[in-house]
Write a structure and sequence with these properties.
The protein is an alpha/beta fold. The chain has a domain at 100-335. 22% of the residues lie in helices and 21% in strands. It has helices at residues 3-21, 60-63, 121-132, 174-186, 238-241, 258-276, 291-294, and strands spanning 27-28, 56-57, 76-78, 95-96, 106-113, 156-164, 171-172, 197-202, 207-208, 218-225, 228-236, 283-284, 303-304, 310-311, 313-315, 318-320, 325-327, 333-335. Strand 13 (303-304) and strand 14 form a beta hairpin. It is globular.
């Protein structure tokens, strides 16, 4: 056999043996420089983004630990209480991906799906949205700018408040949320407005079937509805589905309603993220965490309310316990004011 053929056969045999006896080794394409790389552990987090290596073909198992937490960017979720601070969310900086921000005044349309008779949550959340705009807390979003240097808006106001009886059943999926928004907009119940935010809020008797309480506490996304690119979000009453995973664990609620006060924090989380990442390509860190994710379930300095609750922000005539928000002014950090 020709010497060159012998060397090639030997190289092929060595590679086969390495693949057989070293299951953690990376697969190497023919003609590339051979190297053995140990498989990273599931909890490993790279401190920087590794440069592309054209000569190495990584297997699915090898790359699994380096994928962003949010694998499919069809929506952006608020993590469960137990999943907060995953993938270095409190340390990794956020960067601008080039997408749009909401820079025009934003009206929030509250869509109350389910049974709300006698619920104090309606009044509590209405007061929150009415007093959020122009507040020092809302100013944290103004640290985010788009490619033209325009800041995310702090002009947030209540657009409308609409009760929607659950005539189609007490179960609602993610797709059902979109269908609900489409039905209300196309039917003229609420106006079609690409500068607005549509918040679907479900009552305790509604079961959200796509992961509420088991995978997330809320989410936001966007989509083409009635000819406009509309931004919409979901917030659910955690009383029955998520009492342990979507309710703050800091003591008595500031407004005396565990469900409403928990929803207040989730609603603000999703509004913050919609303003700075409305189309899921705005401001993100390397793990695809948004500004709200990076500070989820953290509150900073708190104070006792007159009736014995725990709060950290006063808006209008009420106290609230809402998560801090990420700011990208130097140094980047979680904060209640910019």
């Amino acid at each position: 056999m020709h010497r060159r053929h012998v060397l090639l056969a030997c190289a092929g045999l060595c590679l086969a043996l390495a693949t057989t006896f070293l299951p953690g080794a990376a697969a190497v394409t023919a003609g590339s420089t051979t190297s053995t790389t140990a498989r990273p552990s599931a909890s490993a987090r790279p401190s920087i983004t590794s440069p592309a290596v054209t000569s190495v073909t990584l297997t699915t198992a090898t790359t699994a630990s380096t994928r962003p937490r949010k694998k499919r960017r069809t929506k952006a979720i608020m993590p469960l209480h137990r999943a907060a601070l995953a993938h270095g969310t409190a340390t990794d900086p956020m960067t601008y991906r080039g997408g749009a921000l909401m820079t025009a005044p934003a009206r929030v349309h509250l869509l109350w799906y389910g049974t709300w008779t006698g619920s104090t949550a309606v009044t509590i959340l209405l007061d929150l949205v009415k007093n959020l705009g122009g507040s020092a807390y809302a100013g944290t979003n103004a640290t985010f700018t788009d490619k033209a240097g325009r800041r995310a808006t702090t002009d947030i106001s209540l657009g409308s408040s609409t009760y929607v009886p659950a005539k189609r059943g007490a179960r609602l999926s993610d797709a059902g949320v979109r269908t609900l928004v489409h039905r209300l907009v196309s039917g003229g119940t609420v106006p079609s407005d690409p500068t607005a935010i549509y918040a679907v809020i479900t009552s305790a008797d509604i079961k959200e079937t796509s992961g509420f309480g088991s995978r997330y506490c809320g989410w936001h996304t966007h989509g083409l509805i009635s000819g406009d690119d509309l931004k919409y979000l979901f917030v659910g009453d955690p009383t029955t589905q998520a009492p342990r995973t979507c309710v703050p664990q800091l003591g008595a609620p500031p407004n005396g309603d565990f469900a409403a006060d928990a929803m207040a924090s989730t609603l603000v989380h999703e509004i913050d993220e919609t303003l700075t990442d409305p189309d899921l390509d705005g401001w993100l860190d390397q793990w695809d965490n948004e500004n709200g994710d990076k500070c989820a379930w953290t509150y900073g300095l708190t104070y006792p309310t007159a009736d014995g609750g725990i709060a950290n922000v006063h808006l209008g005539r009420r106290d609230y316990l809402i998560q801090r928000n990420w700011v990208v002014s130097s140094p980047q950090r979680c904060a209640l004011v910019a």
